[in-house]
Amino acid sequence: MKLLPTLSEVYNQASYPITGHAKRNVQVLKEALASYDGELDSDVYGSGAVIEPFQERMAKLLGKPAAVFFPSGTMAQQIALRIWSDGAGSKKVAYHPLCHLEIHEKDGLKELHHLEPILLADTTRPVRLADVVGMEEPVACVLLELPQREIGGQLPPYEELVEISAHCREKGIKLHLDGARLFEALPYYGVAADELCSLFDSVYISFYKGLGGIAGAVLAGEYDFTEESKVWKRRHGGDLISLYPYILSAEYYMERRMPRMAQYYHEAQELAALYNACSTITTVPQVPVSNMFHVHSALPKEVLEPILIAVIEETGFGFTHVLRDKDDGGSYYEVSIGDRYAELPKEKLRDAFRMLDERVRAAAE
Ligand SMILES: Cc1ncc(COP(=O)(O)O)c(C=O)c1O
Prior knowledge:
The chain is an alpha/beta fold. The chain has two domains: 7-22 and 260-364, Aspartate Aminotransferase, domain 1; 43-241, Aspartate Aminotransferase, domain 2, CATH 3.40.640.10. It is 45% helix and 15% strand. The protein contains 16 helices and 13 strands. The strands form three sheets. The chain has a seven-stranded mixed sheet with strand order 2-8-7-6-5-3-4, sandwiched between helices. A four-stranded antiparallel sheet has the order 9-10-13-12, with helices on one face. Strands 1-11 form a two-stranded parallel ribbon. The longest helix is centred in the last third of the chain and has 19 residues, at 346-364. It is globular and about 60 Å long. Bound molecules: pyridoxal-5'-phosphate (PLP). Pyridoxal-5'-phosphate binds next to helix 4. This is Aromatic amino acid beta-eliminating lyase/threonine aldolase.
C-alpha cells in the first residue's frame, strides 16, 4: 500500500515555496564565502580582522558602545540576563510567557543561571506598558521580544516602548531587547535600528532569521557589559577558535537583505490579505507588522492537513511544511516572507488561493 505523502514532503517538492529565502543547504555558505579572499585570516578566539571590525560595525549600527559576536542567541541572551541579575543582586527577570527563553531553551536560564522569571502579559498579546508598570515584585531586568514571534510577530506601539524604557530607567530596571527579528520590525516602526535600541540597555540580534545567514548573534551594550559577556561566552564554550563562517555569511547576507526588509513587510501584508479572503482562515496579526504572521484556521489539523497537501500537490505552491494544533480545536502555522515571494507567479498564486478557499469552505460545511 502506498503511503500518502506528508505535508513536509509535498512542501519540499513544491515548485513555488511561498515562504523564506531559499533551501537551507550548503549552497548558502558557498555563495556567501565565494566573494571572500581565501587568504583572509581566520578570527582566533574573538580576535582578528574578521571579527573585530564586524563587531564595531554592529555596535555602530545598533547605537551602542560595543558588540560581541556569539554563536547563538540562546547563549547571548542567557548571559545578558545573568549579567543584569548579578549587577542588581536579584534573581528575578521579567518576560513574555511565550518568549524563546521560556519555551525553547530547556530552561537554560533557570538550570544554568538559577534565574527566576516573572511572566508578563498573556499568551495572546505582547507585553504592554501596564504589564511593566503593574509588576508587583522588583526585577533586575525586563526582556522584550520585538516582534513577538509565537503570537504571529505582534508589536506594541512605539510610543509605549518609549514609556516602558522611561519607566524602567526611573526604577533602575535594565531593559533587554530580544531583537532576533529587529530589522524585520523597523519598517513598521519607521525608525532606525539605533533609535529603537537607544531605549534598551542591551540588545541581541540574529543573523539567520530574516537576514538568512547560517547562524550567529550579536549582543550589544555598554563596554563593561560586553566585556563581561565575553567572559561568560568563554565559560559557556561559545568562544570558538574560528567563527568566520558565521561572521562572513552574516556580513554577506546582511548587505543583501537589510535593504529588502520593507519589501518583505509589504509582501507579508499582501499575502495575509489573500489568506484572510479564505473561508475559516484568519491571520494573526490581521495586518502584519513585520515580514511574518500566523495563519489560523477553525479547521482541525486532521482536516486542514490533507487539504493543504492536495492543494500544494495540484498547484505547486508550498504554503507550509508544518501545521500545528491550537488549544481551541483549530490549527495554525507560521509564515515569514523572504526572497522567494517576489519571484512567485502572482496570477497562479491567486488561483492557488482560490482553490484553497474552495476546499476549506467545502470542508467547513
Ligand atoms: C525570538 C528569538 N529569540 C532567540 C532565539 C535564539 O536564537 P538561536 O537559535 O541563535 O539560539 C530565537 C531563535 O529562533 C528566536 O526566535
